Each structure stands twice: as structure tokens, then as C-alpha cells.
UniProtKB/TrEMBL annotation:
The keyword Cell membrane does not apply. Keywords: Transferase. This is Putative acetyltransferase involved in intracellular survival. GO terms for molecular function: acyltransferase activity, transferring groups other than amino-acyl groups.
């Protein structure tokens, strides 16, 4: 009998060297174009996760999601968002609802931590996964971020989604991530 995969919410101090290595290997398989980066670190830029959700089969991570803590402005008002990054499920475990389980776990935890919204940017081929799990389109507006000291805009081919937490409706108007994107 196979045990059901376990879902864990982890702070950085609970991710030991072995688990970090196993997560980086999973990320490298799921995002081969970023393998050189993930061979060194799970953390992209200064996007240290506020918490990480992993699903383990035994001791091996088979799914991963990172949430960064950001204060952004939208329509000129500040909001605290859980920026979702590096969502992946290892190939043999896809189509089993694991991404939805991680998203649900992450958003429940983010609500308890006082976040206003979940927020993410994704490619078109995965957008339906998020929409099926309660994520919503951010109203059309320019979204700026800082890249090496220069203001840039999120490319239009990236889907922009939010998840209502302690606030229910994402405000209209320009959005400033106030830092690099995650």
C-alpha cells in the first residue's frame, strides 16, 4: 500500500540541505531553461519565500510552490500580496490534483498570515489550472516592476491573476510591484 503524498508548509529555516537539494532538482526538471540557476539556489533574485508548500512522496518532493511576501500598490493604494512562484508538479504525478492542493494550502495559509491577495504571473498553457482553483484575472492595467534599477512592464503575454484573501476585489488602476518580479 502506498502512502498518500504529504503536503507541508515550510518556512525557510525548516528546509534542510537535503530537502533544498531535492527541491532544486525537482525545479530543474520542471523548468529546464532555469536549470543553471536552480543548480545553485531555489531563490531567484531577492525573492526569498515567506513560505514554501511542498508535496512529498515519502521523503522526495514531487510538487513545489513558493510564496513571497510583497507590498505592492494598485490604484495608488498599498496591498500585501503573497506572490506565487515556481509552481511545479513532477511529470509522473501530474493530472492528480496536486497543483490545486498546493494552491489551496498556500492561499489558506496566506489568509491566516494577513495577506490581502495572492498574485501570480503565468504562461497561457497553465492559466486554466489557476482559474479552476479560484484565481481571477487582474483588471487590465499596466504592471511595473524594477529590474536592476530600471522600471519595466510585465509583458502582455503573461497572464496576471489574483486570489482574493482578506480583500475580495482587486482594485483597478496601475499596479507597481515596487521591486523585481517574482
Amino acid at each position: 500500500m502506498t502512502d498518500r503524498p504529504r503536503t507541508l508548509i515550510l518556512n525557510e529555516d525548516r528546509i534542510d540541505r537535503d530537502l533544498d537539494t531535492a527541491i532544486r532538482e525537482l525545479l530543474s526538471r520542471c523548468f529546464p531553461h532555469r536549470k543553471p540557476l536552480f543548480s545553485r539556489s531555489r531563490i531567484l533574485g531577492d525573492n526569498t519565500p515567506a513560505f514554501t508548500v511542498v508535496i512529498l512522496a515519502g521523503t522526495l518532493p514531487i510538487a513545489h510552490l513558493a510564496a513571497v511576501d510583497r507590498t505592492i500598490t494598485a490604484g495608488g493604494e498599498p496591498f500585501r500580496v503573497a506572490g506565487i512562484a515556481n509552481v511545479c508538479v513532477d511529470s509522473p504525478f501530474r493530472k492528480q490534483g496536486l497543483a490545486g492542493r498546493m494552491l489551496d494550502t498556500a492561499m489558506q495559509h496566506a489568509m491566516k498570515l494577513g495577506f490581502d491577495f495572492g498574485m501570480l504571473f503565468c504562461q497561457g498553457h497553465v492559466v486554466n489550472t489557476y482559474l479552476r482553483n479560484g484565481w481571477q484575472d487582474i483588471p487590465p492595467a499596466p504592471i511595473t516592476y524594477i529590474d536592476h534599477g530600471t522600471k519595466k512592464q510585465i509583458p502582455p503575454n503573461r497572464h496576471r491573476l489574483y486570489y482574493p484573501l482578506n480583500k475580495t476585489t482587486f482594485p483597478p488602476g496601475p499596479i507597481n510591484l515596487q521591486t523585481n518580479r517574482w
